[in-house]
Write a structure and sequence with these properties.
alpha+beta; MutS, DNA mismatch repair protein, domain I; DNA polymerase, domain 1; Dna Ligase, domain 1; 13 strands; globular; binds 2'-deoxycytidine-5'-triphosphate; binds magnesium ion
Amino acid sequence: MTLVLFIDMDYFYAACEEARHPEVKGKPVVVGTAPPNDKLRGVVQTCNYEARKLGIHSAMPTSQAFKLDKNLVYFGDDYKYYGEMSEKVMALLKAYGHRTEVVSIDEAALDLGEMGYDGARGQAEAIKKEIMAKFGLPCTIGISTGKIYAKMMCDESKPNGLGIIEEKDLKAFLKGKDVIRILGVGKKTADRLNAMGIDTIGKLAKADPNVLIDNFGIFGKELYQLANGIDTSRVEDKYTILSIGRERTLQKETTDMKVVESMIKELAKEAIEELNRQHLWFKGISVKAKYTDFTDKIKNKQFNNYTDSLDLLTTEGVKLIRPLITDRAVRKVGIRVSSLAKREGQKKLS
Ligand code: DCP
Ligand code: MG
Ligand code: MG
């Protein structure tokens, strides 16, 4: 049986600062959006676990964080440096020779193949040790039979952890968890499930699959499978570092460009929200159509200048995906922005 390893770096931006400023280790450390001379104006991007103990967290206004502790160590974010650290970590992971999917700036999934639980544990321990020795960065790893379960286990093993969920324990592991913990289940889907009396993954596993399919289309089938320990999400061979993407299964498979267009608009909006959150511009875009036979097609485009325009992303995204929508039924579509840059000091498209 194939195992998936999911890794997420611990308090990543703040850990990068600790790595180059070892003197701040052990103190509460915050990385915020504003420069240090204006540190009360921005929001917290992340903070180390000492700061979390004080109640500080991502997206909190920095002014509020300083109210909780006026002696916080503060850094204005240096996205270029964090990006470089991320690239180094990803290159190290890639060198282990497994199919590697870079999921975000501090997350990746590795398809470990058929090495068994002991082999997987050894691999994870080696990775943790090497990342700490080379870069001074802590991380947490989850291992399971699928990407989604491995990520859940990773989340639960933080910080500096290593957690394995074996197939035989999977159902018990999933049973009491809120349905919103399933990757791809947002607030809307969770609300609809709750209205059907399904609040935990355990209840989802016992639901009537036909009712789920009636309500959610193909996604309903995936939900049912996931709740029952079958994770069909593949570790993609994706190594475009520093890109932000969103993809989603359609309610029903379709050949209708109108349906695809409205989904692309929705996903583009989400991608731009994430881009704004990380204070980035993009220059490259790509779209993907996944067909019912599980093959997919991707189209890319590169602009001459950086931009953060939602209109541009939507228009170009729709244009790019149009030729991919033919009489072959599509089940999933996605959009991704790449060639990212920190907003300061770059030329932007008007
Ligand atoms: N980030 C951000 N704004 C947020 C959340 C995150 O700018 N609202 C950035 C800073 C984080 C990085 O993305 O360091 C990775 O996000 P994670 O969610 O993985 O959080 P951390 O790595 O900081 O902490 P954890 O140990 O919980 O993974
Ligand atoms: Mg992290
Ligand atoms: Mg992360």
